[in-house]
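Example record

One chain of 344 residues, shown exactly as stored in the release files.
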Amino acid sequence: MKSSRWSNYIAALPRQPYSLLYWTRAELDRYLEASQIRERALERITNVVGTYNDLRLRIFSKHPYLFPEEVFNLETFTWSFGIIFSRLVRLPSMDNRVALVPWADMLNHSCDVETFLDYDKSSQGVVFTTDRQYQLGEQVFISYGRKSNGELLLSYGFVPREGTNPSDSVELSLSIKKSDKCHKEKVEALKKHGLSSSQCFPIRITGWPVELMAYAYLAVSPPSMSRQFEEMAAAASNKSNAKKEIRYPEIEEKALQFLLDTCESSISKYTKFLQGSESMDLDVTSPKQLNRRVFLKQLAVDLCTSERRILFRSQYILRRRLRDIRSGELRALRIFDGVRKLFK
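Predicted structure tokens for this chain:
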């Protein structure tokens, strides 16, 4: 209502944020098929719709005079969640309490900025202290947190320029093959530690987590290593007592090859989308529909380009490590052969 103290703030909020919450299933399938962020988006949409249906069944339908359907419907409910996902602020000085902060949530994100909003007890308000000098008329930026490009698109509806986000990462999905002779035992070991037979791990331009390597060891380990399944699964879940990365030299080459194959399979999906994106939507004649598709497609192209870049880097590192292992083995065989001939 106009009489509300929040009226001007609510009126200034975007009517349709560009987060993935507002993409249709067809748009997610069309533009983000190569990226794991599509699964995150579908999960979020399912949660929001499920929450609304639950509330409508238990509360809204039983008290229509308090919750009229023209206001409390799925469209406005989705809009409200979109606003929360894109504007919610955590305040460290208030035990990370979450809040909507009028006007301050209009500050744009920069990957180069390290400062955040926080509550100030002396002024009893939310303050923002800059980490640099700004000139008169210059735009002031804030950090939305150390998020990957996919996470920024998921919640905020934008993708930073390629190579400008030091927190960028791509999720690589690893799976235990159903044809594995120890599939049942490996899956049971994973379940004990809260993991499944198909698991995603973040890869950064600087490398990958030790948990990913532990999962790869488990995926390629032979039946003779069944006693180590539990240890590998614990390390993959980060619940191991070990302080450093576990290593199994006897299967390291297989584990690295497994990661390389998975990485290259993912790269091929990105390449297929990026190559085909130019010919997409040429049949659309409606200007409004065309503008939306061009905008969403460009976001998807920017995301897939940045994620593929990280995978290319990982591919290079994996190939190099495999080459070093194999060249080392070849040298060892030559030395052994030389010694054998000498004694012979």
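Notes: The chain has two domains: 6-156, 169-343.
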